Amino acid sequence: MEWANFWFEMDEHGIIFNLVKPLVRFFDQMPEMSLVAADFVLQEAQEAVQNSGRFSLALSGGSTPRELYQLLSQPRFSHAFPWDKTHIFWGDERWTPKNNPDSNFLMVQDALLSKAPLSKSQIHPIETEGIKAEKSAEEYEKLLRDFFAKKPGFDLMLLGIGPDGHTASIFPNGPALDEETRWVLSVPAPEGILPRVPRITLTFPIINLSKKILFLSGIKDKEKVIDDILGARSALPASRVQAQEETHFFIQGKKDS
Ligand code: 6PG
Fold this sequence. Notes:
By secondary structure, the chain is α/β, with parallel strands linked by helices. It has a single domain (about 20-220, about 240-250), classed as Rossmann fold (3-Layer(aba) Sandwich). The protein has helices at about 30-50, 65-70, 75-80, 105-115, 135-145, 205, 225-230, and strands spanning about 1-5, 5-10, 15-20, 25, 55-60, 85-90, 90-95, 125, 155-160, 185, 200, 210-220, 245-250. The strands form three sheets. The protein has a seven-stranded parallel beta sheet, covered by helices on one side. α1 crosses α2 (about 65-70) and α2 packs parallel to α4. The two termini are about 20 Å apart. Bound molecules: 6-phosphogluconic acid. 6-phosphogluconic acid (6PG) binds near residues 60, 63 and 64.
């Protein structure tokens, strides 16, 4: 049963409130999804700067968002983007040096930061060199709390979905799953998920303070996981994400009918 933005589910125990229905769009091809996502990010950036004078954007890692980041660096988006008012953060990072191919920072650096007119003071990477992982997590949390002194929460957070339903580096049965106070944790290498390195990850307490969240994912090898997450009937990590205003899902690939 659907009513306005409220979405009810019935089961043998009665009504299960799912307060906000996810906003889901399926795309045939990745380039089309990336293009719509780039326009979405640009709109959010312009709106945030108009409303608050700045735009705080948390980026996801992995492979899916690379094309989106490349598009944002191209004139048709870059020329209209309020770069001078934008601050870039990461939702998680692999515990590798910044010049390692597994680094989420390196992926974003190559795809976007090397071309966008951003000063170092606007780019906030998670430190992974010359520091212990736990200290890096503590320092990133301090950086976030100082940045969000008044009203915590990114204007927009991009997230991916792993084949096991993880998001950021919050893995099923992982130590970050049930965290309720810390905003940033250092977690061990995940089982069966590449790259098998420790991670630094943001946690639900700060993720769910985001005004808006956009999930970007291909459906290949993730069909069941994505079905469960969109059905909000799962305890998978990505199912526990709920933005303050809107949670969007852009999914590429055809669902098997
Ligand atoms: C990471 C990401 C991770 C990613 C998913 C999906 O550091 O790997 O933050 O959460 O978004 O694993 O990755 P793909 O986009 O490569 O499928």
